[in-house]
Amino acid sequence: MKLKFPLSRNEIFFAAVYFVQAAVGISALAEFLFTRNELKFSFVQLGILAALPTISWSVKPIYGFLTDLVPIGGYRRRPYLHITPLITIISWLYIWQFADSFVSFVIPSMIASVGMGFTDVICDGLVVQQSDEKTAGRYQSICWGALTIGAIVTTFLSGLLLGRELVSIRGMFFLTAMMPLITFAMSFFVKERKISEVSEEKVHQEINRKYIYSAFIAFFLTALIIYPREGQNMELISIGVIGIWFVWFAFYFKHLMDLKVIGKGLFVAAIFVFLWRFTPSFGAPWQDFMLNKVGIDQETYGYFGVVSYLGWLIGSVLFAKWLDKKNLKKVLLWTILISAVLGMSQLTVTKVEWANLIGMNPIIKYIGAAIATPVYLVAHGKNFWSVLMAYPGIVHLNMFLDFFLGILYMVSFLALLKFVALSTPKNLEGTNFAVFASIMNFGLVFGSVSGGMIYEHIQNGLYGISGLAITVWLGAITSLFALIALPWIRTEHMAHEKTT
To answer: Are residues 314 and 403 in the same domain?
Structure first.
């Protein structure tokens, strides 16, 4: 949909929330450098660090229920929009000033994510409340456009500011703390109708409050078990974190099934979503390899992320133009298979000699350089091409792979989101979509923790195969597990399946 300007006050707020969601990623590179190189986190600890903030997003339905249950001053949304950005700001300011250990970094990071997740849920609620047949597409265009712009801009700045030593590592945490000020300022311009009738103040009785209370208890137990003590075993802690939230989510999911909020068909769909997203994550080992082993400078590493996001843009266009109308089950099947095969291409990067040789192939080199041209034109001006041509082959190869893997990631992600959205029963879209989003996030939690635990044992290699190469094999194989549930997925009830 073509956007018309000017935007309304609420539309500007929607854009601000989604922009900030991406903008807090400006500290992602600094976070790795600080935790791995300065605080000497193990890969198990890095896995937990990646998982705990994701847990905060895995319980998003709770935030929605809380705003419904406890209106403030007659408003369900706006007062929370004033409070939640401040939670994120204070948490990152604490990290900026005081973080010097595992707990003093991880706990504030998790609390900051609660603030971000809460703000996102409230924003989504406002979007849904104000959406109709004419505005739904416009709102989604605004939200995802702002998210993409935020990701590209801040990822670019992350590498640039650190690589050129314009901002220190801790200084990046201060910049991150400043980002939610945008949302906080815009929240005062949000329009919301005040609750005027007693009937509107009734709480939603369908969801038992004990699941809200138990979520807070789970957060407390998580903080308790990761608190440092003598003889602490980080692997047992990882299992404990997964166990706490698996038990909570299993009972919560069963509760929703008992209430007929979700049925058996959706349960199968949930299993499929979880299996697709639970692939062990090895992001930290790859960062360690590129930055500390290969010696890629921080600025160039930041530009890898920008190139990947450019691939996201292309992938979203491809999906909207050609794949959106195709049989969804076939799209899911082929994206899983192609993702596994293309993911194996990363094996070429695990040996620097191979990567340099392949990357200097004229086809790979010049396609990689052409892909990166917009980024380097902004960063280096008229000297951009000479900078690109001076790189070793591994940089060109990584640019090439990141771009095309980014395209595939976005195609598969949009197919997954469409599947989730169309699998929800009528009149229960909001609740079910939030539940599915939580399942996807919980799959990522499992992937982060399991990835850290696995790599801690295989980082030195097994049977002559490097630890990094093993991560590629594991990622490809586990991504195929979702095929187990695919035959039981039913899409015939979906409107678009009748015409293709």
So the answer is: yes
Hey, what are 111's tokens? Answer: 């609390």
**pLDDT tens digits, residue range 399-433?**
999 999 889 888 887 787 777 666 665 555 555 66
Residues 168 and 277 in one domain: no
> Do the Cβ atoms of 445 and 375 come closer than 8 Å?
no
* Alpha helices by DSSP H, 179-289: 180-187, 210-226, 234-258, 264-277, 283-288
183 and 75 part of one domain: yes
**Tokens standing for 403?**
């771009």
Residues 281 and 184 occupy one common structural domain: no
- Domain encompassing residue 91: 7-190
**416 near 276, Cβ under 8 Å?**
yes
- Kindly report, residue by residue over 148-190, the tens digit of the pLDDT: 889 999 999 999 999 999 999 999 999 999 999 999 998 888 8
7 with 15: CB under 8 angstroms?
yes
Q: Does the pTM of the predicted model rise above 0.90? A: no
Which CATH number covers residue 70? 1.20.1250.20
Which long-range CB contacts under 8 A does 132-138 form with residues at least 24 apart? 137/1, 138/1, 138/3, 138/11
307 and 164 together in one domain = no
